Task: structure prediction
Amino acid sequence: MAQRQNSIAKVKYVVLDVLKPHRPNIVDLTRELVVKLPGVTKISTSIVEIDQDTESIKMEIYGHDIKVDEIKKILREYGASLHSIDAVTIEEDGAE
Amino acid sequence: MWRGEDFKLPLREKFRRYIEYIRISEANKIARRYFIMNSFDGSVTILGVLLGVIFGGITDPSQIVGIGIATGVALMVSGFSGTIIAEEAERNKDIKELEESMLMDLKDTVYTRAARFSIVYVGIVNAIAPFLSIIISLTPLFLALANLVPVDIALSATIVVAISYMGILGILISNITGRSKLREAVKLMAIGIITTIIVSIILKPI
Result:
């Protein structure tokens, strides 16, 4: 199949399953991600499960160019770890 | 121990980080508790020292101020080193437990940096608290040193100031507990008065 010219596939939406310590809380962590990632425009975070020392969260990330590796790096910096990518939406920009 | 990796950052960013570290490590809660505890410690200690000085017949304000400041410095060193040792052990235990739960190494994460920062932050608060109590209690003697107040009045005033400062600490406690300001202030001042009475009873025959 012929590939489209000058088109770049970009991540527009992604759902992440993340394990994190109780601190920083989801407000601070989500704010940090939105502020530090230029390609991200909106994040909805919800808590899925709370354990004694940790909590599992679901992050729905919206943007025009989401870099999952950058998100992983920031999560790591905050002591959180990416368990799985549960959903993704990729769109082509500049398709001819 | 916190090595201050953030020293290279611009001042504004540095403050933002430090505030973030305080929030993550909940250091303010611990520092507040330590501040009250050690301020009270400083007040009771200086009260004992001042009563000892009065009953010992020392009336030279410069000597008394010297004894007071030396006591303050000793409490400052004790407060700082004691907190560093205790908090470091406690924080390391927390990190280790969290690493086991997370199944990951938390080195070089904000969490570990915040824990290190909080150790130093709480240590500094713990060091300043008793020293501040002592300096405030000695204020009348500083005035006596400047020949603004007679020494005998200044000595009695130091006892009053030390006990009053305990009352202020009581008001601080009431802000945390939500209980009556007056009740907390009176409670702490009563401890100061009881200390004064006990020391006076012990020292009077000597």
Observations:
- The CA atoms of residues 170 and 187 of chain B lie 7 Å apart.
- The radius of gyration of chain B is 21 Å.
- The helical segments of chain B are 11-25, 27-56, 61-102, 110-145, 151-177, 181-203.
